[in-house]
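Async update (no meeting this week)

Hi team, since we skipped the sync, here's where things stand on the single-chain job. The sequence we agreed to prioritize is pasted below, unchanged from the tracker. I ran it this morning and attached the output directly underneath so nobody has to dig for it. Comments welcome in thread, and please keep replies under the output.
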Amino acid sequence: MRKLKFFIAAFALLIPIVLTGNGGIRANAASNEYYLGGMTAGFSLSAGGTEVIGLSEVIAEDGIHHPAEEVGIKVGDVICAADGIEIRSINDLNGALARSEGKEITLTVKRDGDTAEVKLTPVKDKKSGKFKIGVLIRDTLTGIGTVTYIEKNTLRFGSLGHAVCDESNQSLSISDPKVYLCSVIGVNKGKRGKAGELRGLFLNDKPIAQADTVCMAGLYGTFEKTYDFSKCRTVEIAPLSEATIGKAVIYSTVDGICPQSYEVNIAKVDAGNRENKNFVIKVTDEKLIEETGGIVQGMSGSPIVQNGKLIGAVTHVFLNDPTRGYGIGIENMMKN
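Output:
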């Protein structure tokens, strides 16, 4: 199973404002406090089927076959049904192939948002005796990212600040995402031309939150009531109109499970940008630069705080300078 990277790059496991039905902002004195994020979370996401990550040959008694390749199946396709029966896991697909007993089956395949049906005949593998179609697949994606905020009243959270992407920088549509407590156990430092990354470890198999929305501005959902919020700092939010060029801090976890504050400088505020790049920030904190080289993968979603208020989240890093990156305004993150 290939690891999903919730990356922050210019090249991937976690909102005083309430959104009205039309996406506007409604003041609500009872809902103007949020828990500040900064904690690293592990995300486990269903691919919504079995995703093809490679094509292979099937060696049978009568020679070598390429069933999937011959009917046009490609890397990146998602097999979501076999003979009309939903396929959600590797076991589901293997079961469907076994039931075929080598007879022709119809696979429903998704590609780039479109769905098509292909007919092919599974081949009995000479060594294992199992019926195969010549694909390497995965059904689960995992990665780590940073929670930006948790609304105190509803426990709704927002994280990442950008789309969920795979290792090829392609946005993904995923299902049934779960969020787990994660500890950062190491850092690959960023350097000019190559983004660094946090290395995390899922601490247990019990989710601390369930995500239900994935979009271009991040991953959203609801925290479990059993999560320990006693160490979480409360904060109000501020619109982009209150953000100014100058000093600010980001909250990130680059070791263990406890977020720390790090000094940054906001070099530019662009309220009109619609690509999650409302801020240009520069890391000035020598400790963070020493530990990570600046902004690295896994820090996406790190909250940006200025004058004691949450104004946004880190989203991207400049590949030619890992101490610099972009951030999304918190009001834009919430609108999504």
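Quick observations from my side:
DSSP finds four helices and 25 strands in the chain.
Residues 91 and 139 are 9 Å apart (CA to CA).
Reply here if anything looks off.
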